[in-house]
């Protein structure tokens, strides 16, 4: 198929990218803030241009055709390049911007880092919005597809995010957390004692660093509950014998209000390092540079 560029409405690149990313007409319309009929009309025009349905039904969902799959990366990079060209002569104006930045992060990062960051951004960029998404299966693909602007994740957990630019942000340590009136536990907790207490395990998209280390060291845990987030684990502990392992900063922030106390672990524990990742196409974007700098500054204040 050969189509003359002069015969193509380049404005269709915006709805095309939205359709490729969302794989849903309604969500694509919401993404670019147009009505569903307008997005459906754009899809019809794109189907004529490419002579391909682009989106087809698969049960109750819509999926990309092979041609559409092949367009995901080139279209995203093309739009990013256009943004760089158009923004190269200007600067990002945070005071008047209505940009929405999507950040994928754990509940720990949301509480410890993004909460104070947003408090600062409200003053500098009152109309900018931060959309925080949790870390679910395929979260790296979300970054690759352009569904999020930034991923904050421990670089020590092996994954497929190594191909993205990265800046290390801060470090933390792990501690055990128990109910403040749990008299079975003193100021320290050995590996043997940890194995005797009922244990709440955090099971996110990948095994938590603390549990990975305990598994490698052969430390037994009496797992009585599993949860997806660190905050949920802490909320299960008040008034019980249960124990969990979380980051010290999170324990210090939430523990007292929940009636919990931290306990030093006498068991092998790794140091936690957190880093921010982004797609290379966003590196030169003035708005994204501004966001990265603000995240870095917030991390330095911890």
From TrEMBL:
Transmembrane segments: none annotated. The keyword Transferase does not apply. Gene3D superfamilies: Periplasmic binding protein-like II, Winged helix-like DNA-binding domain superfamily/Winged helix DNA-binding domain. Keywords: DNA-binding, Transcription, Transcription regulation. CDD domains: PBP2_Nitroaromatics_like. Residues 8-65 form the HTH lysR-type domain. It comes from the Bacteria. Pfam families: HTH_1, LysR_substrate. SUPFAM superfamilies: Periplasmic binding protein-like II, Winged helix' DNA-binding domain. InterPro entries: LysR-type_TF (IPR050389), LysR_HTH_N (IPR000847), LysR_subst-bd (IPR005119), WH-like_DNA-bd_sf (IPR036388), WH_DNA-bd_sf (IPR036390), YidZ_PBP2 (IPR037402). One of its GO terms (molecular function) is DNA-binding transcription factor activity. The keyword Signal does not apply. Belongs to the LysR transcriptional regulatory family. This is DNA-binding transcriptional LysR family regulator. It comes from Crossiella cryophila.
């Amino acid at each position: 198929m050969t189509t003359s560029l002069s015969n193509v409405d380049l404005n269709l690149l915006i709805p095309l990218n939205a359709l490729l990313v969302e794989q849903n007409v309604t969500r694509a319309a919401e993404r670019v803030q147009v009505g569903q009929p307008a997005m459906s009309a754009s899809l019809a025009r794109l189907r004529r241009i490419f002579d391909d349905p682009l989106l087809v039904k698969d049960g109750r969902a819509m999926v990309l055709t092979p041609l559409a799959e092949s367009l995901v990366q080139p279209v995203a990079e093309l739009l990013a390049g256009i943004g760089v060209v158009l923004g190269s002569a200007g600067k990002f104006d945070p005071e008047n911007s209505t940009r929405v930045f999507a950040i994928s992060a754990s509940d720990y990062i949301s509480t410890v880092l993004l909460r104070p960051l947003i408090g600062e951004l409200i003053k500098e960029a009152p109309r900018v919005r931060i959309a925080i998404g949790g870390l679910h299966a395929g979260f790296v693909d979300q970054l690759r597809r352009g569904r999020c602007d930034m991923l904050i994740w421990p670089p020590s957990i092996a994954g497929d995010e190594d191909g993205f630019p990265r800046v290390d942000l801060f470090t933390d340590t792990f501690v055990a957390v128990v109910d403040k009136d749990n008299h079975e536990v003193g100021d320290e907790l050995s590996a043997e004692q940890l194995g005797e207490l009922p244990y709440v395990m955090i099971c996110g998209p990948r095994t938590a660093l603390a549990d990975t280390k305990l598994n490698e060291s052969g430390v037994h845990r009496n797992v009585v509950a599993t949860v997806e987030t660190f905050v949920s684990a802490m909320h299960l502990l008040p008034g019980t014998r249960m124990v969990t392992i979380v980051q010290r900063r999170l324990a210090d922030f939430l523990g007292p209000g929940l009636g919990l106390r931290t306990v030093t672990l006498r068991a092998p524990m790794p140091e936690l390092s957190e880093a921010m990742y982004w797609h290379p196409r966003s590196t030169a974007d003035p708005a994204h540079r501004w966001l990265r700098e603000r995240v870095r500054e917030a991390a330095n204040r911890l």
